[in-house]
Specification:
Radius of gyration: 32 Å
Bound molecules: S-adenosylmethionine
Number of strands: 29
Pfam families: PRMT5, PRMT5_C, PRMT5_TIM
Shape: elongated
InterPro entries: Arg_MeTrfase, Arg_MeTrfase_PRMT5, PRMT5, PRMT5_C, PRMT5_TIM, SAM-dependent_MTases_sf
GO biological process, one term: regulation of DNA-templated transcription
Keywords: Methyltransferase, S-adenosyl-L-methionine, Transferase
Protein name: Protein arginine N-methyltransferase
CATH architecture of one domain: Distorted Sandwich
């Protein structure tokens, strides 16, 4: 359940303090708290300081810097220095002073503190005042304080440095920065002529402000997110640094810009009464765009701060109506509804969202009974397996008895489903059940004795790669799949099991495919970093992905080479026809199970890449399958619970500008003992091939003159040139740097590389996957 806060301004507090019905020990803030609670709010949000402090600070900071020499000014300067050395409030400069007042208050740090002022002194004194306010809030045991937004892009580094210093000096407290969802004051670039493809691409990274025709912000307006990104990066992704996302500007119609925020630590939503419109009956409601944004962001369970609700902006409903309305939106949020509906993945995953788990290794380890029990709760996986076996039996072309083998039977659920499918198909059939886990084999023996009997089932204990099976089988059934398809070594195990599959036999599953998507998630980045062990940043994890944003879109890119937002890495098919076999029917090496993929994604909006989501899709038989592919799972295996996605982390986040292209290389590698993945990524930006004419590119990319075809892309030998500097009067050696080799070029646009990650997990150094 999200919490709700009522915002009280200084005027509201002043008005309450004038009330003559205040009890003796009741302060205005205590009254605000009880009033707010009586209309359904949990806490109040109150400015920590008042106008008196603002006036004194201005005098100390601004007047002490005035050039004018006077006795007065000297006195102010001395007071300013005294304050700088020992910053402290007078009682009448703060709105709260008692522990019980602060109990239900989220303090707002003075919004006039310009931590990003252009003036050095103002910044300097604003930072001292910020420390002072936070220290006072901390003294009053405030768990969180809301800080004013950055407003000056050129000084955002100074703003962030000051916040970082506060995070270091004020322990425990969460600092939540109020950031507008976008900046409506940014200037719209109106081109005087139609832009070239490159110009529109490049301007999409910088153009901001309202679209003049629709009155909505353009898709690429990410200036406030970019400022937030700079701040949290400078603050080293400190987990105590969070966001109070300000929904004061009217929201854009398109959700792609807004999706970015769902991968960020949005702890508060600032929602003013002015964002509401009146419905036909006069009650406050939100416009469609805001409604759907709030429904989505509710999955992060933010505290909703409602501001200006006492101003009677709407004819009906009063103060309570705003919170009631947002509660109604929360209840109708698909994510929240799914979380409360039994049988959905969201409900099953409660408490596991963004929680890193080591992938299971059922080949190397023997699973616990409780783990099998958890799998067996999945109604969809077993239903689909039964359907696939039923279809395979129904379509089985040969007469006579059909022989089935469940390879890796666990506690026997697939054996039971196979027997049901046999009964439904009315075929004569027999089932072998192979299991190498000695403990699960005890459960199998019990079920064999109590439920199945010798006529229907024979149990075989051992490893399917080496075990002797009394006869060759027609249908080989297995479930050795991991979140990435092959990551629990299904290909290697089934290579061994294929020895006892007849030449015309079939495998269920018949194939499985691995997919990846580039993700942003500050939560997951922090979770992997928190492990301390550097290898933890190179280990794939099983994660119920939650506060994430898939950065890619479907297509785009300069040469049309970008694939969809979630792309296929590789596929395994069974039975295998391509491996060279020994006399015993086993592959000579595991080389045929190595794979690699190089994928290109289009990144429409600026974002930070923290890793990759890994997914799989399996064809069991015919049209029956299993899928955790985010765009297809609902059609193929809705509400299947058995697999959460895999997360491939990055050691260092990679910033991706708007309209960049991301190339992801991923390998499945193998030696005699293990299988592991390695991965890395490179980012590219489109630039005009002729941009050698532009001073920007000549300065930054190549100091040489354009070549004959006017392209800086043609390789030029590096020629040392002796020049004499007019300043130093000594000969300087300069090197002409050859132009950057573009990754791709088309229609006068080239892709130049801007950054790359390290190679992750070389040699399988942090792999858990053992053969
Ligand atoms: C993911 S569990 C599936 C269990 C069961 N079929 C189900 O669907 O609930 C995989 C099972 O295969 C077994 N297994 C894995 N590799 C095996 C191998 N090489 N030979 C025999 N059993 C194996 C594991 O012990 C485990 O019981």
């Amino acid at each position: 359940m999200p919490a709700f806060s009522a915002h009280y301004t200084l005027e509201d507090i002043a008005e309450l303090s004038r009330r003559d019905d205040l009890a003796d020990d009741e302060t205005a803030v205590l009254r605000a708290t009880s009033d707010a609670r009586s209309v359904g709010y949990d806490t109040v949000c109150v400015p920590l300081t008042n106008e008196k402090w603002k006036a004194r600070w201005r005098e100390l900071c601004i007047l002490s810097q005035e050039p004018e020499e006077s006795a007065d000014r000297l006195a102010i300067e001395q007071r300013a220095e005294a304050w700088r050395s020992k910053p402290a409030f007078f009682r009448d400069e703060v709105t709260i002073s008692r522990l019980e007042e602060a109990d239900c208050v989220i303090p707002l740090i003075s919004d006039w503190l310009e931590l990003d002022a252009s003036d050095d002194w103002v910044r300097h004194d604003a930072e001292i005042a910020l420390h002072q306010e936070l220290a006072f809030a901390s003294y009053l045991n405030a768990q969180c304080a809301i800080l004013p937004p950055p407003s000056n892009r050129t000084q955002v580094g100074s703003y962030a440095r000051a916040i970082n210093a506060c995070l270091a000096s004020i322990p425990f407290m969460e600092l939540s920065i109020r950031v507008p969802i976008y900046d409506p004051t940014s200037v719209l670039q109106v081109p005087s002529r139609a832009p070239s493809p490159v110009e529109s691409r490049r301007s999409s990274a910088v153009s901001v402000g309202m679209d003049e025709t629709t009155g909505t912000p353009p898709e690429s307006n990410m200036t406030t997110w970019e400022m937030w990104d700079t701040i949290r990066t400078i603050c080293g992704y400190n987990p105590r640094l969070t966001l109070a996302l300000d929904l004061t500007p009217p929201l854009p119609l398109s959700s792609s810009v807004l999706d970015q925020w769902s991968a960020e630590p949005v702890r508060h939503l600032w929602l003013p009464a002015s964002a509401f419109i009146a419905n036909a009956k006069g009650y406050p409601v939100l416009p469609k765009g805001t409604q759907s944004f709030i429904r989505d962001i509710m999955k992060l369970q933010p505290n909703v701060i409602l501001s200006g609700t006492r101003a009677k902006k709407h004819a009906r409903g009063g103060e309570a109506a705003y919170a009631q309305y947002v509660r109604h939106l929360e209840k109708t949020s698909p994510a929240v509804k799914a979380a409360h509906t039994a049988g959905t993945v969201e409900n099953f995953a409660q408490g596991y969202q963004d929680y890193l788990q080591a992938p299971l290794q059922p080949l190397m380890d023997n699973l616990q009974s409780i783990t099998y029990h958890t799998f067996e709760q999945d109604p969809v996986k077993y239903r689909n397996y039964e359907e696939a076996i039923f279809l395979a039996l129904s379509e089985w072309p040969n007469p006579g008895k059909v022989t089935l083998c469940v390879a890796g039977a666990g506690r026997g659920p697939l054996v039971a489903r196979a027997l049901k499918a046999i009964e439904r198909s009315k075929k004569e059939a027999f089932v072998y059940a192979v299991e190498k886990n000695p403990n699960a084999y005890v459960t199998l023996q019990e079920r064999h004795r109590n439920e199945w009997g010798d006529e229907k089932v024979k149990l075989l204990y051992g490893d399917m790669r080496t075990l002797e099976v009394p006869e060759k089988v027609d249908i080989l059934i297995s479930e050795l799949l991991g979140s990435f398809g092959d990551n629990e070594l299904s290909p290697e195990c089934l290579d061994g099991a294929s020895r006892f599959l007849k030449p015309d036999g079939i495998s269920i599953p018949s194939s499985y495919t691995a997919y990846v998507a580039p993700l942003s998630s500050s939560k997951l980045y922090n979770e992997t970093r928190a492990m301390k062990d550097p290898k933890a940043m190179e280990t794939p994890y099983v994660v119920m992905l939650h506060a994430i944003n898939i950065l890619s879109d479907n297509g785009g890119g300069i040469s049309g080479t970008c694939g969809p937002r979630i792309q296929e890495c590789w596929e395994f098919e069974h039975p295998r026809k391509d491996a060279a076999l020994t006399e015993q029917g086993l592959p000579l090496t595991n080389s045929h199970n190595a794979r690699s993929a190089k994928l290109t994604f289009h990144i429409p909006n600026a974002g930070v890449l923290h890793g990759f989501g890994g997914y799989f899709e399996a064809v069991l038989y015919g049209h029956v399958g299993l899928s955790i592919h985010p765009d297809r799972m609902a059609q193929i295996s809705k509400d299947m619970l058995s697999w959460f996605p895999l997360f491939f982390p990055l050691k260092d986040p990679l910033y991706l500008p708007a309209d960049s292209e991301l190339t992801v290389s991923i390998w499945r590698l193998t030696d005699a003992r293990k299988v592991w993945y390695e991965w890395y990524a490179e980012a590219f930006l489109p630039v005009p091939s002729s941009s050698v004419h532009s001073p920007i590119w000549r300065d930054t990319l190549s100091p040489m003159s354009p070549s004959a075809d006017n392209s800086f892309l043609s390789p030029v030998a590096s020629t040392p040139t002796i020049v004499t500097s007019p300043l130093l009067d000594v000969p300087q050696l300069t090197l002409e740097v050859p132009a950057q080799q573009p990754e791709r070029q088309k229609d006068g646009v080239s892709l130049v590389k801007i950054s790359q990650t390290a190679l992750h997990n070389p040699g399988g150094q942090s792999s858990w996957i053992g053969l």
